[in-house]
């Protein structure tokens, strides 16, 4: 079926287009991975010379893009397929019911490397998706993943990871702008962290990816016990460490996007980590995301807020329970969710637990725009202690059905 050593991208592509009952549930599907949608004998419309087509090339003859088009046409849906920014921009969300956009043969580019004439940004894609989906009076579920934050961290590229977080921040703000928090639950969270740490006591205002200094604005570097300077950001493991002892960074531009941050343990690929990750939310039932929870609880609240799955019954529906009652609503809602917790096995849970990525920064801070203008395209100017953890994320936008 394929030439590469991983079957997962091909299976994911299959499921994106053809599900067990003959058609995909996805109305809008945007991202990279074009090579796993096309058979090996069909030339790519915009081939990348550096891409190894033999890694992910279909040998089963299936052209999933054509299959997708045929299926939408047969069912009479207005639909568009785009492989670049120009085609994407032409898609009119008002007159489009289904949209497939595959903007790279492999992964989407990192934001700092993105060719803006070829690939839309995560904000562009989020806005287009919401404009298409919000026409549905039954509501919608949108899942957005900034997947390259993870990849950047695996490579110890902290600068690139932070730039991805900043790009996602803009997408969250856009989602907030295009929806109403009276009827739309937005959840930002992660499925794991990375072994990224922020060393304390950096000078106030120092670049988060820079070398620690005695005083900001002055050249004297803080030195470690080995007499050499060190960066504020350090990874526990990964390819950033290439020598047995620390490299002397005195004359190294640690703010550069391609600078691999030092790691304690030399490894070819940095690992995920084990601490709890944060979850932030706005909109209906968002107050239920507080404290510490098993990951499945995240999807339970989403279902409860949108009155689907085990909560589709009026007695269990969040909207019904929001009507005046003697019981404080937070106690009542938590009790309902706890009671029906084991029953929940819908696709929302699957999507959430599989794809949720690493997160960190407080959504309120993001929404209030605290990160605005803190990245000038070259350096990050926010204070290290303001970032808490600085790994990654995905977010979910769910508009409740009109009951
Ligand atoms: Zn990962």
From TrEMBL:
For this UniProt record, give its keywords in alphabetical order, as a comma-separated list.
Magnesium, Metal-binding, Phosphoprotein, Zinc
Residues at which Mg(2+) binds? 145
Q: Which cofactor does it need?
A: Zn(2+); Mg(2+)
Give the first-level EC class, as a single word.
Answer: hydrolase
Stated EC number for the protein is 3.1.3.1
Q: Where does Zn(2+) bind?
A: 150, 154, 191-192, 272
Textual note on the cofactor: Binds 2 Zn(2+) ions.
Q: Which domain of life is it from?
A: Eukaryota
PROSITE patterns referenced in this protein's UniProt entry, alphabetically? PROKAR_LIPOPROTEIN
Q: Which InterPro entries match?
A: Alkaline_phosphatase, Alkaline_phosphatase_core_sf
A single GO molecular-function term is:
alkaline phosphatase activity
Q: Which Pfam family is one of this chain's hits?
A: Alk_phosphatase
Please state which protein family the record places this protein in.
Belongs to the alkaline phosphatase family.
Question: What is the protein name stated in its UniProt record?
Answer: alkaline phosphatase
- This protein's species is Elysia crispata
């Amino acid at each position: 079926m394929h030439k590469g050593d991983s079957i997962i991208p091909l299976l994911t592509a299959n499921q994106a287009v053809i599900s067990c009952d003959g058609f995909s549930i996805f109305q809008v599907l945007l991202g990279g991975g074009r090579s796993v949608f096309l058979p090996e004998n069909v030339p790519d419309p915009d081939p990348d010379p550096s891409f190894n087509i033999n890694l992910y090339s279909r040998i089963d003859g299936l052209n999933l893009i054509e299959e997708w088009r045929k299926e939408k046409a047969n069912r009479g849906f207005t639909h568009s397929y785009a492989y670049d920014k120009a085609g994407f921009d032409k898609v009119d969300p008002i007159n489009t019911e289904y949209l497939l956009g595959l903007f790279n043969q492999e992964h989407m580019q990192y934001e700092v490397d993105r060719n803006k004439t070829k690939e839309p940004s995560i904000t562009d894609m989020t806005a287009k998706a919401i404009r298409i989906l919000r026409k549905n009076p039954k509501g919608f579920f949108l899942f957005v993943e900034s997947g390259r934050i993870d990849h950047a961290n695996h490579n110890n590229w902290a600068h690139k990871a932070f730039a991805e977080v900043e790009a996602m921040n803009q997408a969250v703000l856009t989602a907030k702008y295009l929806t109403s928090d009276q009827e739309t639950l937005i959840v930002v969270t992660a499925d794991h962290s990375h072994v990224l740490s922020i060393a304390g006591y950096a000078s106030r205002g120092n670049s988060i990816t820079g070398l620690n200094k005695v005083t900001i604005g002055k050249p004297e570097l803080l030195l470690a016990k080995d007499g050499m300077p060190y960066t504020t950001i350090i990874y526990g493991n990964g390819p950033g460490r290439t020598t047995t002892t620390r490299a002397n960074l005195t004359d190294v531009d640690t703010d550069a996007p391609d600078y691999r941050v030092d790691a304690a343990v030399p490894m070819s690929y940095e690992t995920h980590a084990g601490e709890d990750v944060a979850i932030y939310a706005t909109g209906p039932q968002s107050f239920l995301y507080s404290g510490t929870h098993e990951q499945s609880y995240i999807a339970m609240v989403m279902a409860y807020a949108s009155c689907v799955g085990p909560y589709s019954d009026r007695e269990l529906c969040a909207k019904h329970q929001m009507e005046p009652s003697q019981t404080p609503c937070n106690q009542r809602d938590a009790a309902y969710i706890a009671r029906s917790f084991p029953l929940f096995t819908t696709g929302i849970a699957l999507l959430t637990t599989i794809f949720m990525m690493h997160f960190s920064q407080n959504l309120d801070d993001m929404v209030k725009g605290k990160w605005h203008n803190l990245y000038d395209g070259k350096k990050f100017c926010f204070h290290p202690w303001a970032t808490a953890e600085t790994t990654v994320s995905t977010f979910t936008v769910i508009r409740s059905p009109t009951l």
